[in-house]
Design brief:
- This protein is an alpha/beta fold.
- It folds into two domains: 248 residues, Glycogen Phosphorylase B (Rossmann fold, 3-Layer(aba) Sandwich), CATH 3.40.50; 161 residues, Glycogen Phosphorylase B (Rossmann fold, 3-Layer(aba) Sandwich), CATH 3.40.50.
- The protein has 18 helices and 13 strands.
- The strands form two sheets. A seven-stranded parallel beta sheet has the order 3-2-1-4-5-6-7, with helices on both faces. Strands 10-9-8-11-12-13 form a six-stranded parallel beta sheet, sandwiched between helices.
- Helix 1 crosses helix 18, helix 5 packs across helix 6 and helix 14 packs across helix 17.
- The N and C termini lie far apart (49 Å).
Length: 446
């Protein structure tokens, strides 16, 4: 018999889609799903037949204040949490508490800081979802932080040095979380955790919805952690297929270079599309430039037989037809490029993008240029170097084969159903060890 599951997440389409893909799989297995997120995504959630509930803030990707805050690599994380996310925790907690009261299980994304509080208040089992390796904060596999470039070498320092660095980071960020700490006290939730770190992990189940090639479970991961492989739901609010003009372009000649940016970056960095266009005109290869809906009108008439502009394309349908991919380094785009078997140029700016670049470079499938340093000359040279690198091309093909064997959607849904099958008495204690998904494909050194 199906169970009632209350799911919630906040963020961009890149944060929503993996959770939505998981929600639809659990619904297909007979469970009753409610999905709580920003009001902006209400039509998108309801279009898929899920019950929608609003939580705050409304992270509208067209809001310039939010975009500028999120993409500020220096003060962005602090301002985003202090000014936008944490002031909305209490109203979201009050609303989601009502939704979760009748649920058998709560599943939450990393920005839904109210969800763990609801689970603890109600005594409900809870699964936490992480979309990238950075969010586990392991001293054995430390993340690269945008404002701390030396962290790309932190794995050489050893866990004790990394533990000291993390303590200082957590000490500073603890000050940001005062609204959450105050809410916990008012609600009688007596535990001393930092919502940004250990408070975001569950004693029941922690799912990393990314490839084990990017990072394995580490000794300091919370108990009951599992890396499942990527979970994708490859749609936007209005598109599910390649446009006819893009299909025709792909069929009319050799594999193009694809230029694309994430759903936030397309709003902040419109000037990059001019740079991409200059680079594409001087390459020997054909090119596809995805601009996002907001910028498409400006560029659509500039398409030629060599360079095609389009608003959007599902990456799973486009990337396998590319020769290489230029993108901002979001975990979803990085994963799709890995699955497509294509090498990539990553232009990181903030959040987990530098960390994703570092991990892709370790696999031998990427080169990087920091977004603030990118120029037409540097980008053109990087693309030419990548296209002449046969070892990188071979590694990308091997990585794609390994990623396809992981079957992240099934692995994640199976782990959740194992949790649901436990009796209420057993759900109050840590779970027994969860077997890792079968993963026999090994990527050999090129």
């Amino acid at each position: 018999m199906g169970k009632k599951i209350a799911m919630t997440t906040l963020g961009t389409l890149g944060d929503i889609n993996p959770m939505l893909g998981l929600a639809l799989e659990l619904k297909r297995r007979g469970h009753e799903i409610s999905f709580s997120t920003s009001h902006y995504f209400k039509p998108y959630i309801e279009k898929h037949g899920l019950r929608f509930h609003e939580v705050w803030p409304n992270l509208d990707p067209h809001n310039p204040t939010i975009i500028q805050t999120v993409l500020d690599p220096k003060r962005g994380p602090e301002r985003f949490h202090r000014d936008i996310i944490f002031p909305a925790v209490e109203p979201s907690y009050r609303t989601f508490l009502q939704v979760a009261t009748s649920a058998d299980l709560i599943i939450s994304g990393i920005l839904s800081y109210f969800a763990p509080l609801c689970a603890k208040k109600l005594g409900k089992p809870w699964a936490s979802v992480m979309l990238s390796p950075m969010t586990f904060w392991s001293v054995y596999d430390p993340p690269v932080i945008p404002t701390m470039e030396f962290m790309k070498y932190a794995y050489r320092f050893g866990p004790e040095v990394n533990r000291f660095v993390f303590r200082e980071i957590f000490r500073v960020t603890q000050k940001w979380t005062q609204p959450v700490q105050d809410l916990k006290r008012r609600e009688g939730i007596w535990e001393e955790t930092n919502p940004l770190t250990n408070g975001a992990t569950s004693a029941f189940l922690n799912l990393g919805l990314y490839s084990r090639l990017l990072g394995e479970v580490q000794p300091d991961f919370p108990p009951n952690s599992q890396i499942t492989g990527f979970v994708w739901h490859d749609q936007s609010l209005g598109h599910q297929e390649l446009s006819p003009r893009l299909k025709a372009f792909l069929e009319s000649g050799p594999a193009p270079v694809v230029f694309t940016l994430g759903s936030n970056s397309v709003m902040k960095h419109q000037a990059l599309f001019d740079l991409f266009h200059r680079v594409a005109q001087r390459l020997s290869h054909r090119s596809v430039i995805l601009t996002g809906e907001a910028n498409f009108q400006k560029y659509k008439d500039l398409s030629t037989p060599k360079v095609l502009f389009d608003a959007y394309a599902p990456y799973s349908q486009l990337f396998p037809h590319a020769c290489c991919i230029v993108h901002q380094g979001g975990i979803g785009t990085t994963g799709q490029a890995m699955a497509g078997g294509k090498p990539m140029i990553i232009l990181p700016e903030c959040n987990d993008q530098h960390d994703n670049l570092e991990r892709a470079q370790r696999l031998g499938i990427a080169r990087g240029i920091a977004l603030q340093d990118v120029s037409a000359r540097k980008l053109r040279r990087a693309i030419k170097a990548l296209q002449s690198d046969a070892a990188c091309q071979a590694r990308a093909t091997q990585v794609a084969q390994a990623v396809k064997q992981e079957n992240g959607l099934k692995t994640a849904a199976d782990a959740i159903e194992r949790l649901l099958q436990l009796t209420p008495e057993n759900q109050t204690a840590p779970l027994p060890p969860i077997p890792q998904a079968a993963f026999s494909a090994k990527v050999e050194k090129a």
